[in-house]
Amino acid sequence: MTTGQRSRFSPDIPTLVESGFPSLDAPTWFGVVVRTATPAPILARLRGEFNLVIASEDYSKALEKSAMEVLPVPPDAADQFLAKERKLWSDAVQVTGVALD
Predict the structure, then answer these.
(1) CB 59 within 8 Å of CB 70
(2) Overall pTM surpassing 0.90 (yes/no)
């Protein structure tokens, strides 16, 4: 399990964190990004529409078919979340010694 907590779908499978990899809290996530100059009313509408989808039972059921859970990230926490993800995967690449040709 790549999340920090055990999945309700497989509660007997330990997480990578529990297995000795404390920095590997790496949930699967989806995001939507827009240009910085996007007008506030459009951002508000997009957030509202996406929040309706994320909160819907149909969305939850669709994710559950792939043993995934909803992980809502509020807009004011998105920058911090993405910074954590960039650091996690930058560090992972460095550890492996992978280089671009």
Answers:
(1) yes
(2) no
